[in-house]
Amino acid sequence: PRPHPTLRVRPLTCTETRRGDQQVVHSLGDGAVHVSAARHDATFGFSAVFDAGASQEAVFEGSGMRQLVELAMDGFSCTVFAFGQTGSGKTYTLMGPLGQSDTQPASPALLGLMQRSFTCLLEQSRSRASDLALSASYLEIYNEQVRDLLSPGPPCALPLRWSKTRGFYVENQLSVEFESLEAIVSLLLQGSEPQARGWDIRESCPRSRSWDSAVGHGEGVMGAKASPPNVVLQASTCPSKQGTLCFVDLAGSERVKETGSSGELSVEANSINRSLLALGHCISLLAKPRGKRTHIPYRDSKLTRLLARSLGGSGITLMVACISPSSRCLSETLSTLHYASRARRVTTRP
């Protein structure tokens, strides 16, 4: 099958409205979206398009996320990754609003794909088998270092290995078993606690700066982080049947000149861009017909190594492209739309 790309268009922010930004992205229905601006007039097609009025529940049901959970329960390796520029709504789509905690949970209506998937996963596990084992891991990649976010103490770099049977995997990553929604959400919040914050001048809102584009897997379990979150789940009924459900929150593409980043922030932004460029290159090559493909350079970055199985291997992937409708973000919006359009042509063999 091909990746199942969906598009989410967030509403204009108050800042964008006050400064008079024009809305240049319009949903046409039936999975089509139109971009109309000076010197730009293009239509793009996706499996589903969710406009500014779409609820979190509508995105969960309409994106095929429920079916992906069921496939993971059947033993498939399933991956969901959100991408788009900083401030486009990736983290909100995956996790819901920022600032959640054990004492201040988000409203049920605002919960993202991850929490809704956890609920569905637990319901499925209870109805299918009593001996089902569920475990989770949580990783990030920051400046090409893979870190385990569930290990006690400060995050430390873990080695990335390769084997013929497992592919790329993270050595010594921690995997934690869970049996309830409260337990897995607690792990998610634990791994998502902010460590260091930067300031995105374009959006006038804080953004995570301790996370680069990231993803990780080991023992059939995948997890990831790159902006405020992600997690992953493993469901296995016996040693020979092991399914995974991985969520990847890719860091937003950074324009160093526009953000005013300098010093360490500039190094981080450039590292993010190199990682996303490597991912885009792999997607472009994978989109070619199998007979015309050249070598796929998965080894160009830690991100592409750990996404190799999801992109062009034995996995099933849901891609969620998030964009802003603002005329000020036109360049990044078009880049994201072209990125997702290329990914539609990738085929995998789960």
From TrEMBL:
Chain positions recorded as ATP binding sites: 84-91
GO biological process, any: mitotic spindle organization
Subcellular location as annotated: Cytoplasm, Cytoskeleton
The Kinesin motor domain, residue ranges: 2-346
UniProt-listed InterPro entries: Kinesin-like_fam, Kinesin_motor_CS, Kinesin_motor_dom, Kinesin_motor_dom_sf, P-loop_NTPase
PROSITE patterns in UniProt: KINESIN_MOTOR_1, KINESIN_MOTOR_2
Parts of the chain that traverse the membrane: none
Keywords for this protein: ATP-binding, Cytoplasm, Cytoskeleton, Microtubule, Motor protein, Nucleotide-binding
Main location: cytoplasm
UniProt GO molecular function: ATP binding; microtubule binding; microtubule motor activity
Gene Ontology CC annotations of this record: microtubule; microtubule associated complex
Record-linked SMART domains: KISc
Family matches, as PANTHER family: CHROMOSOME-ASSOCIATED KINESIN KIF4A-RELATED, KINESIN-LIKE PROTEIN
Family membership: Belongs to the TRAFAC class myosin-kinesin ATPase superfamily. Kinesin family.
Protein name per Swiss-Prot or TrEMBL: Kinesin-like protein
Protein encoded by which gene: Kif12
